[in-house]
Amino acid sequence: MSGILLGLGQLAQPTALLALLGGVVIGLIVGSLPGLNDSITMAVLIPITFGMEPQVAICLLVGIYCASACGGSVPSILLKIPGTASATVTAYDGYPMSQKGKSGEALGLAISSSTFGGISSAIVLLFLSPFLAKQALKFGPPEYFMLAILGMSTVIGMAGKNVVKNILAMAVGLLFSCIGMSPQTGLARFTFGQVSLMDGISLIPMLIGLFGITSILEMIEGIQKTPKVKEVKQKVENFKEDVKENYKKVKVVLPDKEMAKRLLPIWVQSSVIGNVIGIIPGAGMIMAIFMAYDQASRRRPNLEFGTGVPEGIAAPEAANNAVVASSMVPLLSLGVPGNSTSSLFLGALTIQGLRTGPTLFRDTPEMAYMIILGFIVANIIMLPLSVYYCNFLATAVLRLNRMILSGIVLTLCVTGAFAVSNNVFNIYVMVFFGFIGYAFNKYKIPQSPLILASILGSMMENNWTQSMKFADGSLSVFVTRPLSCALLILSIIFIGMPLYAAVVMKGG
């Protein structure tokens, strides 16, 4: 209780509340702009938070993360163009409902469902993170090594048909994690004579490249593929007319009591799915929204999903926002990022001199609980702000020139990468990972396993070395210690489940 009060004191500061409010507004805007998302925005803004107070910087990022998933539903419903990947499924029923002249009702369903899912995940974060952090204080090197193995195994277990691509991405990430000084010998590895690589690859320039530069390269590719300037202008004019037409009669209508009662089981079911998926490292929003939509369609077989069914909007929107705060659970309590966006928080907290994991709750409980309470408050204020945004501001935002936006993003990327340590080498790192991200997207290789492996790689190596010294080289240390053994069993289950499912399917 004392930690909650300390966190509330930090959050109640006017500058922190303003930053949270500003973050929600920014999140709604970037979420509704196809091509931009929370990861790109946060990667670009993190270096700008250097000079900010820790509570102001973190509150800004919390607001962006909470609201961007909700903002992505706006163009998805009105134009069938998902603002973010997490809003892809929302278009299945959102756009048909909009075509029937019920755009306001569809947006109201998306906003209310997002709020429900977001608040549920914030409550899970509030109760689960401190508990896991207390358990993590019992962890030694063997437990932390097996925790890293568990994080990697969940990526494989949740990969579905992309197992090979996920393993490839993790292998690349582990290779990058080996760059720098060896913890065993103290010798430089893969530095190629660059002093800037002695401490390994800096996380922030890497993330800026993977998200910001990659998006710019893809936008350039799209321009080059367009054959004629006249066609581009015509498409832009058609897009603007489509926006005008869809917004003529739009006024957000929130669900009434009857609709809320009807959707409550779907909200609860989808929120549970989102929270579970969010806690598992490497799973992500995409899996959550498809699972939630599938379960909703199974729950209501009498409805024709894909034709403008309210449940078809409620399920994915509740699920994607439920992933948001719950993905912070493993990061805050154990130091393991739940997805690529929460890994950006790792960089932001590191910049502010804070360490994730159990020490965050022990040494700086005011910051730990401020982050948790920030998610709750951000989801609450997101409801009225989303209604206002959809009614008055979304038209102007959707008509912004994408070329101008890409120029601004590029400028912020270069400035941000340089500002990390005032080192030009970081710009080269950013560009390099921009091309890596572009290549990964081109061949449909997920980036999350790469990011997770590059973060967990050094953690695995350090704790492996310490475990072997502690156990005199005996591998039995990972089995004889209860927590380590439990994590090993969980890892085997995550890897074994898809293999078992594949065998059963072949046998059937």
Number of helices: 23
- The percentage of residues in β strands lies in under 5%
Distance between the termini: 53 Å
Mean pLDDT rating? 82
Pattern of helices and strands: HHHHHHHHHEEHHHHHHHHHHHHHH
Counting helices, strands and paired strands, the structural category is: mainly alpha
- Tell me, briefly, the overall form: globular
Radius of gyration: 23 Å
Give helix % range. over 70%
Q: Strand tally, please?
A: 2
Major sheet attributes: 2 strands, antiparallel
Spatial strand order of the main sheet? 1-2
> Uncertain segments of ≥5 residues (pLDDT<50)?
none
Can you walk me through this structure?
- This protein is mainly α and 508 residues long.
- It is built from 23 helices and two strands.
- A two-stranded antiparallel sheet has the order 1-2.
- Helix 7 packs parallel to helix 14.
- The N and C termini lie far apart (53 Å).
